[in-house]
Design goal:
Two copies of one chain form a homodimer.
Chain A lengths: L1 E6 L3 H12 L1 H8 L3 E7 L12 E3 L3 H4 L6 E4 L5 H12 L3 E4 L2 H15 L4 E2 L10 H8 L5 E7 L2 H13 L3 H10 L8 H4 L2 H15 L9 E2 L7 H9 L2 E12 L2 E12 L11 E8 L3 E8 L3 H17 L17 E2 L6 E11 L4 H11 L4 E8 L5 E8 L2 E2 H13 L3 E10 L2
Parallel strand pairs in A: 1-2, 1-4, 2-3, 4-5, 5-6, 8-10, 10-13, 10-18
Antiparallel strand pairs in A: 7-9, 7-11, 9-10, 11-12, 14-16, 14-17, 14-18, 15-16
Helix pairs in contact in A: 1-12, 4-5, 5-10, 7-8, 13-14
Chain lengths: 420, 420
């Protein structure tokens, strides 16, 4: 019998304990041994909980318990779980974590520390979707050319509502908060930070890239308006918050941002709170993995799949390789990212403005692909919406600064990236 | 160094040998050891081939070669590869097969024979999509409630063309044959037999159901017309050839047939030669796996993922469990399947016909959900198209026989099943 201890018995932890009990028959048939949740750790012991396992408020009661075979870490945070996971590993216990922040900061130290002791994390990325398994195992014959992921259900829910129902950003954020899809302070989700942690985990498995969230380009969905949505529809795009990883020569682009993508691409069809990750391998071509990115039972499904794999003895090295994976690949500096852009400007509605804007872009080597001019309620101001051909991020940033200095450009300039 | 022998060096076998060579760096990093294709077996040695491995026309040169660690079986057929795989296993060699027919008939004997020797088959189902891994591993915490798979690219290509471009069945079959997507005798694909083999493999992992192709309901796409396509569009459906597995109480429905499914479902959005499998688990909810279902490199990607897993020591039991998986579940007899139906009849265009048809259906306990009557070029004949509420397959089959006996019903009655 295999005994599990759970650090953090909240929504996911409760689901883990319940599923281990309620689906014990099939889990034992698959794992080859029975698995039970023995004990868990919570912050507040006086709070009533719907689980029948031993509870403690001291994590060491789990981490140092000689009867516990596998420690499941669902606490959240970075430094406290890091210390506890280290302790569990040094006690020879296998570890399963759903903690994306822990991995975004410490995955390479943890791989080193774990050595041959299993340390698994399927639930850390895209909830119930077995994307870690697909990358570590199913696509192991491939150099990964690129990945695009919808890995934050809050943003996808909001964008779907903005696009399908014409909702305004503020109204839909309020609704998402009422439904429990967004936090009171929504920055971690809508700012793209949550997705960045998941992207970094996938990038480690695919490329061996060691980067932290502060090293990569992260933007959110806060500045998207119905004007942008209408433009996207007109030109055949959906708008999604994507985590993107792309191999370009010996560099790897890693970035999270609102993205215009062709309506006919599979990932554009993923609506609501659902998540999906598209992976393009040099041999297999395009594959996509779709499912729920959050929720107690869905996340617990991924946690338990790791537990079953550990019990089966099928864990392999944590990141899917021991050394030297794509070792010549380096994180590409943000400024070097090459893509197409969408820009939205408010300009004085007078002759010569268009020439001035396009010649400013031209100075930075940027040419226009498609353009739309719209009147506004204020007759003296027009909206200029356009997409550009490919250029470097640095060119675009300089061009935006220069455009902002033009007397005819009024107010803020909004920008979105395009992936075809 | 791990040495591979390949039985059948055709398109896929050639890709396996090439990828092992060309992606040797990343495959070694992931597997932890270097892997080389040593030798292969072909029928005709005089045919020129684009691989640099030893070739023989005697399978025993691979199967009995003490230097070969893993035998890759890509021959096709059933009995010859079965004998060779048995021989390889009894020689202690690990086996990787892409042979769906072999598994459709002998997967349980092979699981028994293999014991702890690895026998893997990711490439047998849905080509490059790691669906076997997802079911065996990623969803192991779940009772599988149902699965729906687009697992035959030929049919999906043809149906996509019929729906998006209004192509007629015969014309598009000819085109598919010219493009190499369909065989000269297309029955194995368009008749649903290919998909049935794959469905049986998935059903073994999910439910432990031991059935053979002749035990389950298999229909193809041969009778679909533009009339059906127009009806489907009008009522919000796509038409797909689906392999369907569904747990109903202690029975499991297994069936392959053209199916009307809601346009907004994710699997309805899978177009062209691409494959996809949706799996609904009792805990994770809906997940979907999308990618290329055929092609040398895509299939070889799956074959090599198995090889890497074997080298890592991560193979586990062949079907994902040792014994007792969902042991009370039984294959539901075809007649017991419950679903909604679409019917197309040609009837005499005269008063009272509708009453006669609906009362005949009523005699078998079948009620109508939606209906469309269309004139035909022949003024004396009308087309009656309708969908029914749920009923048993046996009720529907009897009702069709009775409808066929009505004097007002002219010619053949076409039927399609609906899944919502």
């Amino acid at each position: 019998m295999v005994k599990i201890g759970i650090l953090g018995v909240g929504t996911v932890g409760t689901s883990v304990a319940k599923i281990l009990q309620e689906n014990a028959d099939i889990i034992e048939a698959r794992a080859g041994r029975s698995i039970i949740a023995k004990s868990g750790v919570v912050k507040n012991l006086s709070k009533k909980r719907d689980v029948s396992i031993l509870l403690s408020d001291n994590p060491l009661d789990v981490v140092n318990d000689p009867e516990i075979d596998i420690v499941v870490e669902l606490m959240g945070g970075v430094e406290e779980p890091y210390q506890l996971v280290k302790q569990a590993l040094s006690n020879g216990k296998a570890v399963v974590t759903a903690n994306k922040a822990l991995l975004a900061y410490h995955r390479y130290e943890l791989q080193e520390l774990a050595g041959d002791t299993p340390l698994m994390y399927e639930a850390s990325t895209a909830g119930g979707i077995p994307i870690i398994g697909a990358l570590r195992t199913g696509l192991s014959a491939n150099h990964v050319e690129s990945m695009q992921g919808i890995m934050n259900g809050t943003c996808n829910y909001m964008l779907t509502k903005m696009i399908n129902e014409g909702a305004q950003y503020d109204a839909i954020l309020k609704e998402a908060q009422e439904l429990g899809y967004a936090e009171a302070d929504p920055t971690f989700d809508v700012g793209g930070f949550d997705a960045s942690h998941k992207l970094l985990i996938l990038a480690s498995i695919a490329y061996g890239i060691d980067a932290k969230p502060e090293d990569i380009l992260i933007e959110g969905i806060e500045n998207i308006t119905q004007t942008d949505v209408a433009f996207a529809k007109e030109f055949g795009y959906e708008i999604k918050l994507l985590g993107i990883a792309k191999k370009v020569g010996e560099g790897v682009e890693l970035r999270v941002h609102a993205t215009m993508i062709p309506q006919e691409s599979m990932i554009a069809k993923v609506d609501g709170v659902m998540n999906a990750v598209t992976v393009i391998g040099d041999r297999v071509g395009e594959t996509m993995y779709y499912g729920p990115g959050a929720g107690g039972d869905a996340t617990a499904s991924a946690v338990i799949s790791d537990i079953v794999d550990i019990v089966r003895g099928n864990h392999g090295p944590m990141l899917g390789y021991k050394k030297g994976l794509e070792s010549r690949l380096k994180l590409l500096p943000k400024e070097e990212i090459v893509t197409q852009y969408y820009l939205r400007l408010e300009v004085a509605d007078q002759s010569g403005v268009l020439a001035e804007v396009t010649s400013t872009l031209g100075e930075f080597g940027i040419s226009i692909e498609a353009m739309l001019q719209k009147p506004t309620a204020d007759e003296s101001i027009a909206k200029l919406l356009f997409t550009t051909h490919k250029c470097k991020e640095s060119q675009m940033q300089e061009a935006i600064t220069a455009l902002g200095r033009l007397a005819v450009v009024q107010g803020e300039i909004a920008m979105m990236r395009i992936e075809k």
